[in-house]
Amino acid sequence: ATFIPSLVTTTNITIFKPRHFSSNTAEATQTKTYQELHHALSPSRQKLITILHDYKLKNYSQSVPSRFIKAVISALDANHDELITFDEYQVLLRNIGAEGKMTKDEMWEVFEEIGVISKDDEEKVIPVQTLVECWSDLFKAPEK
């Protein structure tokens, strides 16, 4: 990749912004592996992703990652309000045979990290879009 600075001038300051030229986008940005992305998560989120990854390998091994994510989200968001509640997460874990693989404290840690306060009842919820964004890179990443 070739590095060519570009000038951005404001009233009193000139800022050099790097621009990278490459014939291949993969050359400009390295793709992180599943293990690298997984390692960067908190222990509770690592455990949840491991549970989902194992379920994916067992039940969705021939599916594209986006299909798996869509299926899990559909099962999670039972009332289709685009918000995942703690109870909905517990039901999902029970339905995929993972009940007891995460403690309630670990589940709450996930909600504390990526959840938001619901406007309706001030309960912590996770927006569906947040999960899609969090999971897409992980489940699309190469294994090694």
Structure commentary:
It is a single chain. Strand 1 and strand 2 (14-21) form a beta hairpin. This protein is an alpha+beta fold. The strands form two sheets. The chain has a three-stranded antiparallel beta sheet. The chain has a two-stranded antiparallel ribbon with strand order 1-2. It starts with a strand and ends with a helix. It has seven helices and five strands. The radius of gyration is 20 Å and the shape is globular.
Number of helices: 7
Distance between the termini: 24 Å
Largest sheet report: 3 strands, antiparallel
Helix content: 40-55%
Rg value? 20 Å
SSE run = EEHHHHEHHEEH
Major β-sheet strand ordering: 3-5-4
Structure classification: alpha+beta
Basic shape? globular
What's the overall average pLDDT, rounded?
79
How do you describe this structure in short?
With 144 residues, the protein is an alpha+beta fold. It is built from 7 helices and 5 strands, in the order ββααααβααββα.
Name its key features.
144 residues; two-stranded antiparallel ribbon; alpha+beta; disordered N terminus; single chain; globular; 7 helices
Write the topology of this structure.
Blueprint: E1 2-9, E2 14-21, H1 25-28, H2 34-39, H3 43-59, H4 65-76, E3 83-84, H5 86-95, H6 104-114, E4 116-117, E5 124-127, H7 128-140
Antiparallel strand pairs: 1-2, 3-5, 4-5
Helix pairs in contact: 3-6, 4-7
